[in-house]
Specification:
With 338 residues, the protein is of the alpha/beta class. The chain has eleven helices and 15 strands. Strands 3, 4, 5, 6, 7, 14 and 15 form a seven-stranded mixed sheet that branches. A six-stranded parallel sheet has the order 10-9-8-11-12-13, with helices on both faces. A two-stranded antiparallel sheet has the order 1-2.
Length: 338
Amino acid sequence: MRAAVFNEPGPASTVFQIVDRDLPLTGAGEVRVRIVLSAVNPTDTGTRAGRGVPDGVAPPRVPNQDGVGVVDAIGEGVTDLEPGDRVWVWDAGFGRADGTAQEYVVLPRRQVVWMPDDVDLTVGAGLGIPALTAHRCLTVAADGPQRLGPGALDGRTVLVAGGAGAVGNAAIQLAKWSGATVLATVSSKEKADLALSAGADAVINYRDEDVAARIRELSETGPHLVVEVDTANLDLDLDVIAPGGHIAIYVAGRFSVPSFKAMMKNATLNFVLTYTTTRQEKANAVAAVAEAVNAGAFRVGEEAGLPIIRFPLDRIAEAHEAVENHAVGKVVVEVTAA
């Protein structure tokens, strides 16, 4: 089988090789998936560059955590999947050397999620890290639901910073599916159109609007939950957040906290990394995301606010560079034919 491999960390243009490997065998409780689309996330490019989430695994490695494809073989004890089933996978390359940028990957059953035949495979490629991160951000509040679903966020207002990004898009869709009123911030009209296509009730362009004033116009209480992509926004978040509100931060970096503002609002700051959530938190996220997908409530493509940007496996270096250059949309690598 063909696989993309990097033998040492470094620039995408120099470290990737396309190699032939033996077909991996399934063990008990495992599933072998033929990967159709392998998704690229910022943490994937970080791992390849040598600055990713530490997981104790050294190169050589096959990159990319997320993907979608078809069950090819099942191991002993797997009774609820069969060859030919369409599935999406998550965290394929975390704590393992083999991610999804190869024709076949073997994973534990819990990391392989069934998908209906009438759901386009590109939807599955848009899940994994972005959707599971968004779910955790929307459920991290101590007084909130542990699992999203219709009605779970009724009466709540959610502010999504960066509503045109992959996590932002997922947060908008999952929050709306769960009954929230969703506000989003963006940096351009084009991104505003994407966030509106995802389902946001209102979108604020922070480059030419007074964000705080606009949020106060749109929400009497202010947002109860903030899904935050940039810690530089903390002052703004604490200005507009509802008393007792929660800010979920899913980006890394050093920053100072305007603590008195946070104290005045009795606000909480929560830090989210989907890889290291608890087993139950991950199970809740996977189940809720699968339910949303199966119900037709989670979409991808330009019409859903998340353009799909495709590269063949031979051009995986360009796919990684596109993510590093902040491509707007979901970057996927075409590994095998659908």
